[in-house]
Amino acid sequence: MHTSCKKVAILQSNYIPWKGYFDLIHDVDLFIFYDDVQYTHSDWRHRNKLMTRGGPRWLTIPAGHDLKRLICEVEIPDQSWKQQHRSIIEQNYRHAPFIKESQSLLDFLYVNSITNLSDYNQSAIKHLSNILGIHTQFTDSRLLANCAELNVTERYSEK
After folding, report:
1. Which pLDDT tens digit goes with each residue over 107-153?
2. Would you give the end-to-end CA distance of the chain in angstroms?
3. Where are the chain's structural domains?
4. HEC letters along the chain
5. How far apart are CA 77 and CA 117, in angstroms?
């Protein structure tokens, strides 16, 4: 499946990752989402900070407080946060360059029925990568039986 891979990165998915996350995806042949590990509540998996006119503001996906689960097990049944997050972004960036071109991205991020945190983040990251012209192959660590099959020559992680 991934026999020609040379450079691989493995990271947990994040909600609206920073530029460096996409730089890492760009620099490897295969990016592995590592979401079958312990979920932590105060982390980037379900939240991110947005600069607004009034200063920094947290955008948080309501994922509950149960820490006895893996990231891939976190469900987000309440979808009301999507409209709120979209509205905050649109209000604070309405005069930003390319905001009109960003509407299809906002539709993708906030008009969907994905209720699993890992699935949501992975889908958004893949979509954003495509928009950025990044053509790295993606997989999920849960789908890999044996990492030796990847023929890895270089491994990258967060810096």
Report:
1. 999 999 999 999 999 999 999 999 999 999 999 999 886 665 666 66
2. 28
3. 7-156
4. CCCCCCEEEEECCCCCCCHHHHHHHHCCCEEEECCCCECCCCCCCCEEEEEECCEEEEEECCCCCCCCCEHHHCECCCCCHHHHHHHHHHHHCCCCCCCCCCHHHHHHHHCCCCCEHHHHHHHHHHHHHHHCCCCCEEEEHHHCCCHHHHCCCEEECCC
5. 10
User: Which amino acid, 2?
Assistant: H
- pTM for the model: 0.89
